[in-house]
Design a protein that fits this description.
Layout (H helix, E strand, L loop, with lengths): L1 H11 L7 E12 L15 E4 L2 E5 L2 H6 L4 E9 L7 E10 L11 E9 L11 E7 L1 H8 L1 H6 E9 L4 H6 L8 E11 L10 E12 L14 E8 L3 E10 L16 E5 L2 E6 L27 H7 L7 E2 L2 E8 L2 E8 L12 E11 L12 E4 L6 E16 L5 E15 L6 E9 L2 E9 L1
Antiparallel strand pairs: 1-9, 2-3, 3-8, 4-7, 4-9, 5-6, 5-8, 6-15, 10-18, 11-17, 12-16, 12-18, 13-14, 13-17, 19-20, 20-21, 20-22, 22-23
Length: 444
Amino acid sequence: MKHFYLFLLLALGIFTKVDAQINIYDNVLFYDGYAGLVDEPTAPDVVRLRNDLFTKKLTPEILSQIGSYLYLDISISAACDNYDRIGNVNLALVPKGDLSYDPATTSRIELGRFITPFMNKNVAPNLVPYSYTNDNVVKILKDTYLNTLYDFWIEFELFGVPYAAQTQIAGCSGRNDVFFGTLNFITEQEAMIPPDNTFLLPLNFKKDLNNYAAGASDEIGTTVRTIDFTLPSQINNAKFYLITSNHGSNSGGEEYNRRWHYISLDGTQILQYKPGESTCEPYRAYNTQGNGIYGASPRTPAQWQSFSNWCPGSVIPIREIELGDLSAGSHSFQISVPDAVFVGGQGYIPVSLYLQGENTVLGIEHFTQLDFDYSPNPTKDIINVNANAAINTIALYDIQGRVLITKTVDATKASINISDYTNGVYFLKIKSEKGEKTKKIIKE
């Protein structure tokens, strides 16, 4: 219900913290996801990658308007699809300066997932609102170093199929358009210091989990996926962001059965949950087409919980899993849904996962008796260091905490040449008998 209340507050103009609404997509039209790419015009800054997928680069002007918090405000209206479909908003991390990208080979994270209702475009209301709280994404979009590596593109995705509506909905005969969609950023534009120590690691993007397809699980016959990853340095305040939803509408399929999901890190269970809301009644008004799951009369919460894995017209939860500080080295994430039954080799659980936190090497100074000055900053090549004690070693780290240069010194002055490295943010760590200290430098 949170997205409904946000929509209501915005409509009434009483959400006092909101200072800015940034339009990202304005009533874009999605087409049959199974058909070839349509040749229909889009706004100049919007690219149609597929019939079900648009993308748009977040310009410096857009990024500058984002403040301390971020909501994604979405509205979907019916064209010629009257079934519940999966939609989502994604963030693509495109190498800096690239004018286009291939979504199949580009790192992406899913920011939010939603389910359309069974909508008849001729019956009001034929528009449904959704919203997500994505405050953590502000740190990604505003991070100084990540902005030297990537351009951020926002994807708007909604897979629809018009075939049933072509015969069931008046005015849809022969049409292949399925949904209209609008996406706004809702934010408070206030001064903030851009971070430069945000750690981001995409781990799984909408990859289907099931027990019958090769590569969909660790082993055919089980519904388990293990994702191994290595951290180059300790990550503080680490969190997983996880989205799952069970699909498969055949008899006994995963959409209609709530299964326990077990999440583990390094062999220790850290979360268990069953998907589904306590009741789907709040979304009944949006389900205006009688071919849906609602029926003619309201159901009790117990009835909904006995079969409903999701509510058409609702958002799928983003599960934020707090991990504390994660040490450098090898780690293993695992999701297990042992009771899942994919009847007839059908159904799937799309899993999206990323890790976010704060890199301990970055922006952290160890306040000891040691201190040093350095110049110039920014620099193109040579950094000159002058310390208040004899330097034992001087080391250069990149933003991910990897050691690029280590130099042994036995003097209070030293220099280091970084001309071979790309432009961006780096860190100098100085060690001496008085301790150690790390400071940030910028290569341009």
